[in-house]
Amino acid sequence: MVRHFVDMETEERVRRDDRAHVFHSWSAQGKINPLPVAGAQGCEFWDYEGKRYLDFASQLVYTNLGHQHPKVVAAIKEQADRLCVIQPAFANDRTAELARLIAELAPGDLEMVFFTNGGAEANENAMRLARMYTGRHKILAAYRSYHGATHGAISLTGDPRRWASEPAVSGVVHFCGPYPYRSSFHAKDEAEVDHGERCAGP
Ligand SMILES: Cc1ncc(COP(=O)(O)O)c(C=O)c1O
């Protein structure tokens, strides 16, 4: 059973150090007041006052197994004990096994996995691989999108976070998603979406 304890001294210190030294992404720093989180378990996290929150968003849609799943925690500890880091030129049992498991789930003949440190880096490499492989330059990306904060990934991004980085990487063309819910063409159903797309042209 997890204990939710009150620790106002730590909360005060976290708030003070955070506001003095932590630059939070995509925020006007003077206008934010980040919630100090003391811990989490399953579908909940809690603050230093012991107030519990239901984490409907799985943080940023990445804790889908739940917070502090015992198998995940045990696997992280076991690996940290055994081998914390290995450079990319070497092979490793965990990397090889994970790549095989992903390839088994991936459709068609997708057999190779390229590991990166996060989403933006994955998209950067995807852009370069696709351009090298096809010999073509143009990349289509939806306006209703976020692809990461690095130079190429923010060029792909359709939402206003891209604006400050323009002119960014050349060759990216944005399109309105064929999306009946909150349609860019004010379409009420799929037939109207199709019509809107035809009018918008290729
Ligand atoms: C759809 C999507 N792509 C890319 C990214 C960028 O990932 P990262 O922050 O790991 O670089 C995010 C992050 O929120 C995302 O939601």
Descriptors:
single chain, Aspartate Aminotransferase, domain 1, binds pyridoxal-5'-phosphate, 5 strands, 202 residues, globular, alpha+beta
Structural overview:
There is one protein chain. By secondary structure, the protein is α+β, with helices and mostly antiparallel strands. Among the domains are: 8-71, Alpha-Beta Complex (Aspartate Aminotransferase, domain 1); 138-200, no CATH class. It is built from seven helices and five strands. The chain has helices at residues 8-21, 58-61, 70-82, 93-105, 119-134, 151-156, 190-200; strands spanning 37-41, 44-47, 52-54, 139-142, 172-175. The termini are far apart. The mean pLDDT is 92.
List low-confidence stretches.
none
Number of strands: 5
Q: Report mean pLDDT, rounded to a whole number.
A: 92
What would the CATH topology of the domain at 8-71 be?
A: Aspartate Aminotransferase, domain 1
**By helix and strand content, what is the structural category?**
alpha+beta
CATH class of the domain at 8-71: Alpha Beta
> Any idea what the CATH architecture of the domain at 8-71 is?
Alpha-Beta Complex
Give a short account of the largest sheet: 3 strands, antiparallel
What portion of residues belong to β-strands? 5-15%
Short description:
The chain is of the alpha+beta class and about 200 residues long. It is built from seven helices and five strands; from the N terminus they run αβββααααβαβα. Among the domains are: about 10-70, Aspartate Aminotransferase, domain 1 (Alpha-Beta Complex), CATH 3.90.1150.10; about 140-200, no CATH class.
